Task: inverse folding
């Protein structure tokens, strides 16, 4: 069985306060985009063993640390799973704030549930996903959502950007999420993103922000320049996604991103 885990962008990201468990409560809107990886699972003889082969963008770390392997082992605690060989084509950049690793794990949970008829409910799948990573929960349903707490609680919202171009630029800068949270200053917000998102998109520039931009841009001035370039190209709204480093712009016309360095990765959707 083959599945195509997709990335997400953050529309606004408010870091609210540090929790007693060391994590931070956040508020953000996650919006799925179609920049995708690909995973294929092939059953092998035996039970309870997973082998993984990866292609595309090199993945650092041991196979045991891969989130898909963690998803398989976690599910195998309560469900007898046959042995599998997992083939993962990695296309979504890592350290970009696009949630590719979390998407892979969540889509793999759904794949295992469907492939082996495990009859695990969405609620149970989300509980499994939350044990793998905060962003994983969102990708179980993979619909626009207001995300709260550590990112593990997602409530669907009405948000349709299918009539716009969304351009995402990854400038080959890897941002470590843990380090990013160590330099962020948390604070309360007066208005909820669920209210701010109701305004026209060209108003978002004045009201919707990503708290990680200030410290990350200070350390990487080229990211601020990239965001400004997207506005110069006609973006209605531009922002860094997650803790970076990918920058995206929402356009009503197809952007001409011809002046960027050749090393940058660019993904642009087309309106549907």
Result:
């Amino acid at each position: 069985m083959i599945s195509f885990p997709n990335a997400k962008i953050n529309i606004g990201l408010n870091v609210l306060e540090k929790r007693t468990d060391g994590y931070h409560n956040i508020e953000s809107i996650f919006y799925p985009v179609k920049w995708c990886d690909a995973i294929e699972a092939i059953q092998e003889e035996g039970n309870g063993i997973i082998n993984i082969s990866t292609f595309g963008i090199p993945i650092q770390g041991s196979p045991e640390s891969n989130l898909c392997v963690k998803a398989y082992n976690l599910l195998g605690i309560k469900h007898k799973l046959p042995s599998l060989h997992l083939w993962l084509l990695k296309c979504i950049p890592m350290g970009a704030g696009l949630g590719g690793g979390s998407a892979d794990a969540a889509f793999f949970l759904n794949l295992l549930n469907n492939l082996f008829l495990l009859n695990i409910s969405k609620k149970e799948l989300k509980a499994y996903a939350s044990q793998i990573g905060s962003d994983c929960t969102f990708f179980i349903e993979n619909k626009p959502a207001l995300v709260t707490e550590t990112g593990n609680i997602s409530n669907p919202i009405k948000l349709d950007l299918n009539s716009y171009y969304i351009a995402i630029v990854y400038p080959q800068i890897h941002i470590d999420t843990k380090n990013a949270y160590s330099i962020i200053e948390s604070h309360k917000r007066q208005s909820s993103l669920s209210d701010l998102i109701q305004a026209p998109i060209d108003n978002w520039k004045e009201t919707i922000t990503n708290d990680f931009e200030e410290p990350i841009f200070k350390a990487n001035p080229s990211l601020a320049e990239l965001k400004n370039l997207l506005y110069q190209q006609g973006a209605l709204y531009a922002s860094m996604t997650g803790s970076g480093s990918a920058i995206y712009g929402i356009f009503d016309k197809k952007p001409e991103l011809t002046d960027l360095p050749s090393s940058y990765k660019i993904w642009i959707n087309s309106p549907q």
